[in-house]
Amino acid sequence: MANDTTxxxxxxxxxxxxxxALRTAERDEALAQQTATAEVLQVINASPGDLAPVFDAIxxxxxxxxxxxxxxxxxxxxxxxxxxxxxxxxxxxxxxxxQPMEARPGFASxxxxxxxxxxxxxxxxxxxxxxxxxxxxxxxxxxxxxTGLFVPxxxxxxxxxxxxxFRDEVRPFSDEEITxxxxxxxxxxxxxxxxxxxxxxxxxLDQQTATAEVLQVINASPGDLAPVFDAIxxxxxxxxGVAFGILNTFDxxxxxxxxxxxVPAAFAEFRARNPTGLGAGTAPAQIIAGENVVHNLDLMDxxxxxxxxxxxxxxVDLGGVRSHLAVALRKxxxxxxxxxxxxxxxxxxxxxxxxxxxxxxxxxxxxxxxxxxxSELRQRTDEIAEINRDLEARVAAQVTELERTxxxxxxxAPQLAELIVAExxxxxxxxxxxxxxxxxxxxxGFTAFAERAEPEEVISLLREYHAALGPIVARYEGTLDHYxxxxxxxxxxxxxxxxxPARRAVxxxxxxxxxxxxxxxxxxxxxxxxxxxxxxxQGYATLGQIGFAERMxxxxxxxxxxxxxxxxxxxxxxxxxxxxxxxxxxxxxGSLEQVExxxxxxxxQPVLVYNLA
Length: 613
Description:
Blueprint: H1 2-46, H2 52-66, E1 70-77, E2 80-87, H3 91-98, H4 108-113, E3 119-121, H5 124-130, H6 135-142, E4 148-155, E5 158-166, H7 175-220, H8 225-240, E6 244-250, E7 255-261, H9 265-273, H10 283-288, E8 293-296, H11 303-306, H12 310-318, E9 323-331, E10 334-343, H13 351-409, H14 414-423, E11 432-444, H15 446-452, H16 455-475, E12 479-484, E13 487-492, H17 501-525, E14 531-548, E15 551-557, H18 559-570, E16 576-579, H19 580-586, E17 592-598, E18 607-612
Parallel strand pairs: 14-16
Antiparallel strand pairs: 1-2, 1-5, 3-4, 4-5, 6-7, 6-10, 8-9, 9-10, 11-13, 11-14, 12-13, 14-15, 16-18, 17-18
Helix pairs in contact: 1-2, 1-7, 2-7, 5-6, 7-8, 7-13, 8-13, 13-14, 16-17
């Protein structure tokens, strides 16, 4: 029995060791793949715009991790595939792959174009037997390429190329290897997209710089077109691959060369003796007929040349021109001239180059219009100056109004502050006497709390307290006299009179008590034994601004303020004590409780007091 147990334990240990070895191998393989992916990304980051090291790194990592003997990375451009990176291939096969070639029907490249996720060829030797006239397949088989995998490089649904991976034996690629190659393909697409964006950014920056420099010449040469036209032709040559160019102006009947750059001597001599021709099919004739852009891929391969048009023959035979672009200069519908750009090889201008020349043409029109515009600008100078002065005055007035509103908002409800500013009369803030209702409120036990608590706790509690009660003051349109620690003083009926100020003060106090009690309940759960009381009195006071130029406050001074403060001090937690005068205005509320006459500090006679239940 013991031996059986030992054997079983040994078997279990052996199984566990095999499982551990398998998991370790899987972990190492995953780590190697992650490392390879990270290293390729590092190459991408280190080689912005340079795809060669990125493609080489991708092939190197793919070969190492997927058991690949031969490989290439091919791009799909202008309807043809060509290798831009190869690895461990015979030179004759590598050179063949570098030559652009259309997709062969039925072969891997055609299937990728058709949208297949990947294409795996079991054995290139067998495939070559089926395609005896396909040189790529025959040479691949001859050099020992066997099982092959083709993984597309795709940007969304657009095929940009593919990675080809071959073994030197017949052994299919696993799902994990296919997935890894797809990851490498995605990284190749990222690098290609980065390079494209970088190139476009550089081109755009060069074009913007050129446009800005031409505008600088225009600004620096008002009325002088020669330096502007020279700058335009110079920028067009450097950015558009132009061999030479001419900027022609139009007088309504004929074209005249206003600026030239790089024109061959023989053609320049011909042009000096002969006016620009307007023969049928020529660019000048098409421009006059209304065309804005005339693009000739090959001037030699057109009827004007074959029919012997003198100007066309001169351009081709004396100037050596093949491709040509003409862009009209127009002001609205008025023809002012055109820019002619020439190449000595058959190479079409790209859409971006045409757009850039159109931009230069627009700048030339701006320069040609400058003389007229300058006259109009001078006539408008005084008018614009007057408009600017008016705007400055209005802005200054608005700034002053905002400053006044900001000052008033410190002690008035926002709507009252805005009303005073809108009426433009701040005389109501001057010293005067008026009957007001004063509300004092503060926290019971706050002094004891402040002695025990840390300063940060005191500040936090006061912020919460003021944030809760402040909006209530604004809602009832009270005038906030001041905050003083936990004490708040608010009065009604000044600086703007309001109907029934006593009732408004009482209702505000009740709203404050309701909000304060919710705060007190939470604070007490934290061990803070704090209460809330309010005192309200009505009477005459002297009101006005006090302070100094940089800081003015609006306040009330009088016995009524002292009475409200003493009532507040007398009030227990939750009480709202009001004077008999206030009670007389709100007695119909039915919620008043008479308190016995109270002797208050600073007042010679006892005061009849009511509590708002």
